[in-house]
Amino acid sequence: MVENHHSKLDMPSPSQTAASENATTVPCGGGDQRRTEEEVSRLGACTGSTLIQANVPPLFCFSWFRFESKGLQGDPDRRTSTRDRRSSWGYVFILVNNCLQYSAYYGVSTNLVNFLKVQLHSGSKAAANSVTNWQGTASITPLAAGFLADSFLGRYWTITLFLFISVAGYGVVAASAVFYAGLYLVALGGALQPVLSSFGADQFDAESDEEERRRQSSFFNWFYLSIVVGSLVGGTVLVWVQSAHGWRLGYGIPALLSVLAVALFLAGTGAYRRHQPPGGSPLTRIAQVVVAAARKCDVEIPTDATLLHECDGDDGMSVIQGSRRLAHTDEFRFLDKAAVETAGDKARPASPWRLCTVTQVEELKCVLRLLPVWACGIIFAAAYTQMTTTFILQGDTLDPRVGSFRVPPAVLTVFDTLSVMLWVPLYDRAVVPLARRLTGHRRGFTQLGRMGVGFVILTVAMLAAGTLEVARRRVVARHGTYTGEDGAGYVPMSIFWQVPQYVVVGAAEVFTFIGQMEFFYDQAPDAMRSVCSGLSSAAFALGNYASSALVAVVVRATWCSWIPDDINDGHLDYFFWLLAMLCIGNFGAYLLVARWYTYKKTAD
């Protein structure tokens, strides 16, 4: 076992003093860890693997702060009492912090295209492209934040760093000085979201307590609800402030909210119970497995998996900092060659580029198993984005009048928000208990099952949109259009016929997007959870790009006959049928992936 030695406050015994004279010091990553030469020899490649995690730049050597201080690091051995676990309320700070951040984000993003056109005098196409590029950047940067959290800083410090970046970004945006620089600082600061969700889930001891496991599952529901509430505040109240009181106040409030988010997160420091220490670069560990397996391509894999190389860290953990040992699985057997110890490995100094542990190999297998599930999420995201594109085009032609008031088509997205706000508590308090009784599963649904239900529901939303489009075209054929006060042509059919499709999309979000957050956190290796949680954002970004590409292909292939400038002359219903078929095909592929998938198992 790798032993943690005493702090400087402990008086060493004479035997300890003698042993320390022949000790090897492992720098950073866990304090001043000293091991005798005998221990280093016995651990072999384990020491090499540990050194990978420990060899980080001095800038990140917060070992005294990260591992010795329970006030910030939580309980290092992760074995607090049940009473302590259930009295932990640090996640409340995280939920409110997330709500404030999304209020600020949507306060800027919702009306951004109008700001670019009115204040910066951008053309419509240029403004739309600028917003799309910015949103794409905001969805990709979480992977970088996740890598930083898992590799070097840990989740607490990564969140703190990116919160301050957000404050700087919103401040620059509010001052309208170097506006685009501020905008992209906001996008970079928003990269902390998957790290924040992982940090919140860390507050529950789900590995050893069933009740904590259920509370952790509920946490993801409420975390997503905090996002939706923030988007509702930012997309309605703050947009109204911008319209009624000007851009300076309208962008000043998001800056203030970002400051409050930082203050709230730091105020909760004493309540955060568990911190996941960084485990070193996951990319390095993955590369080591690939290289070691390639070097041993001619080596035979033993039929007995217990003969593969593995080392124990403290308390049965792996030698990867903060990561439990993973049980061996039979998929991707070629990679097991990296953990086969040969005579050559014993004859030369230990090198993780030649010999890896089973846990290190299983980390790569976990990532490979996640990728097909992640890929299915891209088509889901492409269909989901229709809510802010083709749904709006459809709504632009419908009768917006409610008495003397006119309802802008984009306002109907509030019904998606309200649907999520209804479905989150309904799912948590009614659907899960009912499903638990029917299936016997502790979560009601398996994680993959929950996501699959969302895939089906979104298909229904596309069918609903297509059906409405058929009905709308029939009304146009029978009654034509009327000219509104703004000179635009409207179909004599209420815009509120779109409400059902928005409500159904909201239900799909609750099942799939929340299911994705929980799935990627739970099934990722312990030391890679922040990076893997960022896969959800990456899938959403790629879904946006896929939607744009699909529209471009359809326009070119149909000579604009499906989606012309005036959709009354086109066949938007065909496009919705196409999306529904893509969703059905994607669901079929997802069923195959889910059937093949092997859930992660620890070696405890």
Give the neighbour order of strands across the main sheet. 3-7-6
Main beta sheet: 3 strands, mixed
Helix content: 55-70%
Instruction: Calculate the mean pLDDT score and round it.
Output: 82
Instruction: Let me know the number of strands.
Output: 7
List the helices and strands in order. HEEHHHHHHHHHHHHHHHHHEEEHHEEHHH
Outline the low-pLDDT stretches.
Answer: 1-45, 47-87
Shape: globular
Q: Could you state the CATH homologous superfamily of the largest domain? A: MFS general substrate transporter like domains
Determine and state the CATH class of the largest domain.
Answer: Mainly Alpha
Rounded Rg: 27 Å
Task: Give the oligomer, counting copies of the same chain as homo and different chains as hetero.
Answer: single chain
Number of domains: 3
Number of helices, counting only DSSP H or I runs of 4 residues or more: 23
Query: Per CATH, which architecture of the largest domain?
Result: Up-down Bundle
Q: Ends: how far apart?
A: 15 Å
How is this structure best described in words?
The chain has 604 residues and is mainly alpha-helical. The chain has three domains: 89-278, Growth Hormone, Chain: A; 288-363, no CATH class; 367-604, Growth Hormone, Chain: A (Up-down Bundle), CATH 1.20.1250.20. 64% of the residues lie in helices and 4% in strands. The protein is built from 23 helices and seven strands. The strands form three sheets. Strands 3-7-6 form a three-stranded mixed sheet, covered by helices on one side. Strands 1-2 form a two-stranded antiparallel ribbon. It has a two-stranded antiparallel ribbon with strand order 4-5. Strand 6 and strand 7 (489-494) form a beta hairpin. Helix 12 (193-202) packs antiparallel against helix 22 (529-557). It is globular and about 85 Å long. The two termini are 15 Å apart.
